[in-house]
Amino acid sequence: MTVALVTGASAGIGEATAIRLSREPGTELVLVARREEKLRELAGSLPCRATVLAADLTDEDAPARVRAHLEAEHGGRLDLLVNNAGAAWRGSFGEAGYANLRRHMELNLDAVARLTEALLPLLRASAPSAIVNVASTAGRVARAGTGAYSASKFALVGWTDALYAEEKPHGVHVGMVLPGFVQTEGFPATELREKALTRWIVSKPDRVAEAIYEVGPGGKPERYVPRAYALAAVARILFPRLVRRVLTGGPAKSLTTRTAAETR
Ligand SMILES: NC(=O)c1ccc[n+]([C@@H]2O[C@H](COP(=O)([O-])OP(=O)(O)OC[C@H]3O[C@@H](n4cnc5c(N)ncnc54)[C@H](OP(=O)(O)O)[C@@H]3O)[C@@H](O)[C@H]2O)c1
Description:
- The chain is an alpha/beta fold.
- It has helices at residues 12-22, 36-45, 62-74, 93-125, 147-167, 190-193, 196-199, 205-215, 230-238, 240-248; strands at 2-7, 27-33, 49-54, 80-83, 129-134, 172-179, 222-225.
């Protein structure tokens, strides 16, 4: 029996990940997000036992509630934690300011670290176990208008690398997935999909779900989705002037796409 918890399971990459993991024999799932009805609908459609917990992960008591749920419903066992819930709100620092940076950090970094802190004792007790943090290629290369999102994902990437080394002796494998543009409810990438020139760079949630499986149960340290996005990270290190020039030019603006969070 394997107990896997997926945050942000009510939509997009998290939902695809729950579906992917449910295909593995002996899996029990814990689905976490704010919209309970979406989670219940998904749980009812899966071929394995799946419990749901509606929680806003930025709430003070969310980590303790998730841990209590695991203890009450799954005997305190946790083999895989997928820290996937996240969001983005566009805005330059000059316009959106520190408030925008802060809300990204609260959800994309602080909530992940707080949940991981609460669940680490269960993961260690269930070792060998794994954590997969869903970062982003934006956690390696930053663009104008998404600096706050990038800052939160850069921080997540750095923290994940350290946690990988720290938890290895405890039998908890820590890896990350760095998606590029993926069409989801939260990141529809409409502007890119509308144009033949850019349509091909938009990927699908089930490809990220497969990568999450390779990193978690599969034991890989990191995976870009699609893999070619790793070139952007390499270019940022080897050719920083070139990358800066490209990302400062007018055409780069089309890479800063609308998100669902900013329209809510
Ligand atoms: N799609 C992309 O292009 C892309 C690229 C790189 C990285 N990523 C990362 O991939 C992850 C998943 O994104 P996605 O594209 O699947 O987005 P999505 O379709 O908007 O899904 C986000 C999920 O997170 C949950 N969530 C948001 N805020 C929450 C909160 N405060 N508390 C609990 N759950 C919350 C949402 O559920 P509720 O609304 O029900 O709470 C939803 O299930 C994010 O970390 C994102 O940064 C996405």
